[in-house]
Structure formats: C-alpha cells, structure tokens
Design brief:
Strand order of the largest sheet: 2-1-5-6
CATH topology: Glutaredoxin
CATH class: Alpha Beta
Distance between the termini: 35 Å
Oligomer: single chain
Number of helices: 9
Number of domains: 1
C-alpha cells in the first residue's frame, strides 16, 4: 500500500500530523507493507530565505496583533506537546522551504527521505535552524545520512526543481489546498492532522478494499514456474 503525504517543512500541523500518522502506522497490522512518500507543498512560495521570527511573521501575514499571534503560537505549542514534540517558536526563523523540498527528493532517491524529513522538521521547530539557508541544509542532510558534497552540488546545480513543481501541480490537480494531506493508494484522501485512530481506520479500510488478484488465464497446462518446478 502506498501512502503519499503532501506537507511543508514550515507547517506545524504537518509535524503533528507526522507523529499521528506514525502512531497509526505502528498500530496497523500490515505496516511492513506500507510505502510512504513525502510530497512537496509550499505554504509560502514567495517567502525570503529567512523571514524573521515567527510571532512577527504571523502577525504580518495574517493581519493579527502581536498578542493575537502569540496566543496562536502558545496553543500550537500545547498541541505539539501532547504528541511528544517540543515547539520553540521563540527560536524559529520563518523562511523559504523550496530548497528543503528539493533536498527531500534527493533523499527519496537515496532511501533516507523519512529521516531527512524528520531532521528538517526538528531543526525548524525545535532548534531554530534557518532551513532556507543552503549551508544549513547541507549540514542537516549530512547528519541524516546524505553525502554533503552531493547535497551541495544538487542545490547549486538546480536539481529537483521540476520534481518539486510536479508535486505541487499534482496537489492542485487533486484539489489539495492545505497540508498535511494524506493520499492512500490513490483511493482515499485525508485532509489535516487527523487523530491517529482516524488515520488508522483509513489504513484499515484501504487495505480491506484492495482488489484481489483475478486470474484470467491458468490451469494445469499453463506455462509457468512454481515451487515445484517449471511446466515444460
């Protein structure tokens, strides 16, 4: 079964949703047969490499007072804590995530996408790292199992630009307007950081509705190989 998750690095609900999905997957009987792919979605494509501290950034973006913005951050911090996450909005530096998404496509090719995704989220939400800075991305990627020289070359040479744009175009075609958004076997779509039990129910249902194999040609005279040998 294939689960595709559209999300952004600078999305607090995406980090919460990741934890809730992991809890759902851990309780899913067929978890070893689930393949997960992280897809690109930019919440603020026009953001500069570093946009400043979160409270001020939110106040400007949504037209809130600094006090209202801080209340939003405090509520989100409490929600994250319920999932075992430590959000440090006092340290966070909002910024552009396009290069981080390119990095995730490289990580997918190297088989370490989830590890890199987790490292980027933790760096952004807990450690106050500037994920729009390329030197920072190279360092974080190397900590997650990627080769630093390959990462720097990929970023400098403009690799995976098309892959990020393709993910975003596909999100638009699927009607995805917010993240996280979970797509299960291209049959079910789940919007938002739903509770783990809801995500688990979707996994169970998708698995139960998988189409069984219907043989259209077969029989004793079929030319095939099996545990007992090959029909000749």
């Amino acid at each position: 079964m294939h689960v595709e998750i559209w999300s952004d690095i600078a999305c607090p609900w995406c980090y919460v949703g990741k934890r809730r999905f992991e809890a759902a997957l851990a309780a899913f009987e067929h978890r070893d047969e689930v393949r997960v792919t992280w897809r690109s979605f930019e919440l603020d494509p026009g953001a500069p490499a570093e946009a400043g501290r979160q409270a001020a950034h939110l106040a400007r973006k949504y037209g809130r007072t600094p006090e209202q913005a801080q209340e939003m951050l405090d509520a989100m911090t409490a929600t994250a804590a319920d999932e075992g996450l430590s959000f440090r909005f006092d340290l966070m530096r909002a910024g552009n995530t396009f290069d981080a998404h390119r990095l995730l496509h490289l990580a997918k090719e190297r088989g370490v996408q989830d590890a890199v995704k987790e490292r980027l989220l933790r760096a952004y939400f807990t450690e106050g790292e500037a994920v729009g800075d390329r030197d920072t991305l190279v360092r974080l990627a190397a900590e997650s199992g990627l080769d630093a020289d390959e990462v720097r070359a990929a970023l400098d040479e403009g690799r995976y630009v098309g892959a990020v744009r393709a993910d975003e175009a596909e999100a638009q075609a699927l009607g995805i307007r917010g993240v996280p958004f979970f797509v299960v076997d291209r049959r079910y779509g789940v919007s938002g950081a739903q509770p783990a039990d809801v995500l688990r129910q979707v996994l169970d249902r998708a698995w139960s509705e998988r189409a069984p194999l219907i043989p259209v040609v077969g029989g004793a005279d079929a030319t095939a190989c099996g545990p007992d040998g090959c029909a000749i």
